[in-house]
């Protein structure tokens, strides 16, 4: 057992876990580390997982709706189509893994971190996102409407074809990101630095939200090229 495992009340490895087993630990207020455990399709709604650690776990279609997951950590987990609707993920970390088509609707992601993970098609509608950090995240086709990223630094975030309508990107810096073909209706980009973003698919008639943003010479040339002109 690693020295860091001493911080947990128990470490479970290579087990298939159902709600009854997990509930036994959760109701007792225990803090667990789960390694390579399977909880696929399990109903885990409203359970207490504060500061639990999930590593290389299989969580496909698991239901964490309304669960307490403050400071929980998911490392390299497979959580496709899992549901975290209404869950409290304050200060939680999702590091690596696949959460494609997962639902985070109405959840709290305050000061949470999404790092090096795949979340294609995930739904983040109506989440609380103050202080949310995104870094090296695949969010193509994801739903991220009406969120504020103001003054954020977004690193290698792929929003291709994502629904970002009414998001606030004022003073945001994009580094190695993609906004290609994203829904940017009613977004705000004043003083945003878009030089590190792929803005392919944006038409000159769609430029109103970008007033006051900074773009590169190459990006300007691409936009002007739509008129058949060249930037010398």
Topology:
Layout: E1 10-13, H1 19-27, E2 32-35, E3 53-55, E4 73-75, E5 93-95, E6 113-118, E7 133-138, E8 153-158, E9 173-178, E10 193-198, H2 217-224
Parallel strand pairs: 1-2, 2-3, 3-4, 4-5, 5-6, 6-7, 7-8, 8-9, 9-10
How would you concisely characterize the structure shown here?
The protein is mainly β and 232 residues long. It has two domains: 1-143, Pectate Lyase C-like (3 Solenoid), CATH 2.160.20; 170-232, no CATH class. It contains two helices and ten strands, in the order βαβββββββββα.
User: How large is the radius of gyration?
Assistant: 20 Å
**Unreliable spans:** none
The termini sit apart by 64 Å
Choose one word for the global shape: elongated
Q: How many helices in DSSP terms?
A: 2
Give the helix/strand class.
mainly beta
Q: How much strand?
A: 15-25%
Order of helices and strands: EHEEEEEEEEEH
Helical proportion, percent range:
under 10%
Enter the CATH topology name of the largest domain: Pectate Lyase C-like
The largest sheet, given as strand count, sense and whether it forms a barrel, is: 10 strands, parallel
In total, the number of strands is 10
Mean pLDDT: 91
CATH architecture of the largest domain: 3 Solenoid
CATH class of the largest domain: Mainly Beta
Record the strand order, biggest sheet. Answer: 1-2-3-4-5-6-7-8-9-10
Overall domain count: 2
